[in-house]
Amino acid sequence: MKIGIFGNEYQKSEQVVKILDILTKSDVQIFIQKEFHEYLSPHIHWEGRVEGILDCKELDLDIALSIGGDGTFLKTVSAVQLKNIPILGINTGRLGFLADVSEDDMEETLTEILAGKYTIEERAQLRLLINGKDGNPEHYALNEIAVLKQDLASMITVDVFINDEHLTSYEADGLIIATPTGSTAYSLSVGGPIMTPNSSTLAITAIAPHSLNARPLVIEDENIITLTVKSRSCCFLISLDGRSKMMSAEGTTLRIEKSAVPVLIVKRIGHTFYNTLKKKLKWGTDPRLG
C-alpha cells in the first residue's frame, strides 16, 4: 500500500512519529508532501524509510493521509484534486467534521485501515466557471463557493439564477453555495441548514442579508446556479473552501455546478455522520455541567 502524508506546520512531533511508526510496522510505502517534509525534517528524529517526496504533480497513492484539522484536509483535497485518491483525516485540531479521527482513536483507526477494514464515501464537490471558462484545477470546492464584499466595501447585490430562471437578488455581505459536506462549515456559521453528506442537495445562504425575508434555500444538486454581482466598489471576492480569494470585477458571470468527479473520503466501519454530528456539536449534553 502506498500512503502519502500531508500536513501543515505546528503539528506535534511525537504524534507524527507515532503515525510513521505504525505505518512502518506494516507493508506500507511512505511518501510525504514536499512542504510538510521540509517542516518535519528539523523537528522530528525518525530513522525509518521514506519512499519519496511528493510534489503533487504526479501522484500514485492508495490513500492520502491528512494530519491536522479540516483546513489541512481541504488543502489535501486540493493537492490530490481529480486524481481519485481517497483521503483519511487525522484530527489534531479542535473541531473537525472532515478530519474526524481523534488522536485517541488514531492507532486503532490506522490498524483497521492497514488491514483493509474501511469504507470509502463519495462526497460531491462544486465546479466553478468564470465567464464560461473552465480548465483551472483550483476552481473546485468540497465545502463551498462564496462571493463576498471587500473588507471595507458596502454590501453587494447578488442576482441568483437557477437553470437560467431568476430566483432573487440578495443584498448582503455575501452569498454561500454549500455542498452537504460544507453545510457544517462556513454555511452553518451564518445560519445555513445541516445536510447529510449523501444527500443530493446544495444550500444557498446569504451572509448578513439586508432583508429578513432572505432565508436559506436547499435545492437539488443537479441544478445549475448562475450568479452576477453588483458592488459600489465595482469588484468583489470569490472564495473556494476559504483557501483562495480572487478579486473579480462587477459584471462577471459565475456558473456553479456539481462536479462530475467526487472527493473520496476514507471512513471507519460503523462510524456514522450522526455520531460525528452529536459529538462535535455536543448534542444531548448539558452545557451547565461543563
UniProtKB/TrEMBL annotation:
<comment type="similarity">
    <text>Belongs to the NAD kinase family.</text>
</comment>
<keyword id="KW-0418">Kinase</keyword>
<keyword id="KW-0521">NADP</keyword>
<feature type="binding site">
    <location>
        <begin position="184"/>
        <end position="189"/>
    </location>
    <ligand>
        <name>NAD(+)</name>
    </ligand>
</feature>
<keyword id="KW-0547">Nucleotide-binding</keyword>
<dbReference type="InterPro" id="IPR002504">
    <property type="entry name" value="NADK"/>
</dbReference>
<dbReference type="GO" id="GO:0019674">
    <property type="term" value="P:NAD+ metabolic process"/>
</dbReference>
<keyword id="KW-0520">NAD</keyword>
<dbReference type="InterPro" id="IPR016064">
    <property type="entry name" value="NAD/diacylglycerol_kinase_sf"/>
</dbReference>
<keyword id="KW-0808">Transferase</keyword>
<dbReference type="InterPro" id="IPR017438">
    <property type="entry name" value="ATP-NAD_kinase_N"/>
</dbReference>
<keyword id="KW-0067">ATP-binding</keyword>
<dbReference type="Pfam" id="PF20143">
    <property type="entry name" value="NAD_kinase_C"/>
</dbReference>
<dbReference type="GO" id="GO:0003951">
    <property type="term" value="F:NAD+ kinase activity"/>
</dbReference>
<protein>
    <recommendedName>
        <fullName>NAD kinase</fullName>
        <ecNumber>2.7.1.23</ecNumber>
    </recommendedName>
</protein>
<dbReference type="GO" id="GO:0005524">
    <property type="term" value="F:ATP binding"/>
</dbReference>
<dbReference type="GO" id="GO:0051287">
    <property type="term" value="F:NAD binding"/>
</dbReference>
<feature type="binding site">
    <location>
        <position position="173"/>
    </location>
    <ligand>
        <name>NAD(+)</name>
    </ligand>
</feature>
<keyword id="KW-0963">Cytoplasm</keyword>
<feature type="binding site">
    <location>
        <begin position="70"/>
        <end position="71"/>
    </location>
    <ligand>
        <name>NAD(+)</name>
    </ligand>
</feature>
<dbReference type="InterPro" id="IPR017437">
    <property type="entry name" value="ATP-NAD_kinase_PpnK-typ_C"/>
</dbReference>
<dbReference type="GO" id="GO:0005737">
    <property type="term" value="C:cytoplasm"/>
</dbReference>
<comment type="function">
    <text>Involved in the regulation of the intracellular balance of NAD and NADP, and is a key enzyme in the biosynthesis of NADP. Catalyzes specifically the phosphorylation on 2'-hydroxyl of the adenosine moiety of NAD to yield NADP.</text>
</comment>
<feature type="binding site">
    <location>
        <begin position="143"/>
        <end position="144"/>
    </location>
    <ligand>
        <name>NAD(+)</name>
    </ligand>
</feature>
<feature type="binding site">
    <location>
        <position position="75"/>
    </location>
    <ligand>
        <name>NAD(+)</name>
    </ligand>
</feature>
<dbReference type="GO" id="GO:0006741">
    <property type="term" value="P:NADP+ biosynthetic process"/>
</dbReference>
<dbReference type="Pfam" id="PF01513">
    <property type="entry name" value="NAD_kinase"/>
</dbReference>
<feature type="active site" description="Proton acceptor">
    <location>
        <position position="70"/>
    </location>
</feature>
<dbReference type="GO" id="GO:0046872">
    <property type="term" value="F:metal ion binding"/>
</dbReference>
<feature type="binding site">
    <location>
        <position position="208"/>
    </location>
    <ligand>
        <name>NAD(+)</name>
    </ligand>
</feature>
